[in-house]
Amino acid sequence: MIIKSKISTKAALAIGVCLAAQIAYAGPKPDQIGRLTDDLTPVGAERAGNAAGTIPAWTGGITEPPAGYTLGDHHPDPFANDEVLFRIDASNYQQYADQLGVGQKAMFERYPETYYMNVYPTRRSATYKQRALDMTIENGKTATLVANGEGVENAAEGFPFPFPENAYELMWNHKLKPKGTGGVRYNNQVAPTTSGDYTFVKLREELLGLYYKEGVKIEDINNILLYFFQEVESPARLAGNILLVHETLNQVKLGRQAWIYNPGQRRVRRAPNVAYDNPGTASDGLRTNDMTDMFNGAMDRFDWEVVGKREMYVPYNSYKAHSSDVTTDDLVRPGHLNPEYFRYELHRVWIVDARLKDGMRHINSRRTFYMDEDSYQPLAVDHYDNRDQLWRFSEAHCINYYELPTFWSTFEAHYDLQSGRYVAQGFDNQDPVNTFDVEMAESQFTPQALRTRGRR
């Protein structure tokens, strides 16, 4: 399927004046801190609802789990009694065109018989632990961009830029979103054929985030943002393959460092290609490394621009799909995930456009990110090929993880609109759920430790 489109001028004007494409480093704004307890939320979103009343005011998000929740449970749905307001499908999506992205419209056109969006009441459930909110306020007084937008200084623990003025500040708010100091999760993956057949790839992952440790400053962490360990547990042909990543904060100062362990060779090797547009683990080439968490890694191959802010129907509060009562077979369908299990709501999103720089190489000529104002989480992304034609569309289905709390994806799906295939991650319905703030040592994430772990 080939679609060529641009964000309309009408849509941009509807939400106000577009922001400049240049990296206008305005710096910290101590004079505006009072707004974070007045007209803005503690992370910088608009506190008020919209004029139509279809987006409510932010009143703190979910600060306590539903009754009966215990640590380790698949997070029960606090909005289970909400009813579907209406359904958007191929027959009526044009009525909602101003609240849909390019990739969303393409999905209705590509799968007119099977793809739809169940729209529910808007619930602004995103929030973070008080320490992260307090540190976000402090960061608003001090944080600055460095290295042409590739680094941050004078920030710690919280969102660095509660008053974002350019695309780099928005993307750093996503990349540094509070996720806890350490955790373990099963980020299991499928890449179905066009007929819906799939192999279940079991991926166990560990993360250690140095930036989020209480009392730690950027100058204390030796430029390491986080450590990442991923082991394939099944299928048998892939089992035992391990990836280790040291994700740097300033990737101009020092780029991402990665190693792989291959059980057949019983060797640890450097993996310099675990970055940019190289294929992600066991993804059949349907997901690049920098599509993980919707975007990660260096931004230097693209020019970044804020298009504006807009009201859109986006995936949100996907507790139904997250449930332990749901199986992978329930969710996987030919062409796309089963829409019956996913929830969409009207939210305000930042729109960020990234265009490939002259002389740089990447399989995408352009990407458009739709980022939730309450969490800076990209909820949808449009990916264009080198003919400037829409190629892929990504969605992040998120929940509030009560135990931290944080607002983060439980499923990510990346749809290839041209081939009719997709890859999706997050199928932990029958596995232990994410854990946060787990005590981990840096020594667990060295190449030497990788050798030991790989030989067990």
CATH architecture, by name, is Clam
Spatial gap, N to C terminus: 46 Å
SSE order, one letter for each helix or strand: HEHEHEEHEEEEEEEEHHEEEEEEH
Look at the structure and give the mean pLDDT. Answer: 93
Question: Mind sketching the topology for me?
Answer:
Layout: H1 9-14, E1 86-88, H2 102-110, E2 117-119, H3 130-142, E3 144-146, E4 151-153, H4 167-175, E5 182-186, E6 189-190, E7 202-209, E8 224-234, E9 242-248, E10 257-262, E11 267-270, E12 302-315, H5 319-322, H6 328-331, E13 344-356, E14 366-372, E15 378-384, E16 390-401, E17 406-416, E18 421-425, H7 447-455
Antiparallel strand pairs: 1-2, 3-4, 5-7, 6-18, 7-8, 8-9, 9-10, 10-11, 12-13, 13-14, 14-15, 15-16, 16-17, 17-18
Provide an overview of this structure.
The protein is built from 7 helices and 18 strands. The chain has helices at residues 9-14, 102-110, 130-142, 167-175, 319-322, 328-331, 447-455; strands spanning 86-88, 117-119, 144-146, 151-153, 182-186, 189-190, 202-209, 224-234, 242-248, 257-262, 267-270, 302-315, 344-356, 366-372, 378-384, 390-401, 406-416, 421-425. With 456 residues, the chain is an alpha+beta fold. The strands form 4 sheets. An 8-stranded antiparallel beta sheet has the order 6-18-17-16-15-14-13-12, with helices on both faces. A 6-stranded antiparallel beta sheet has the order 5-7-8-9-10-11. It has a single domain (9-455), classed as Clam (outer membrane lipoprotein receptor (LolB), chain A). Mean pLDDT is 93; it is low at 1-24. Helix content is 12%, strand content 27%.
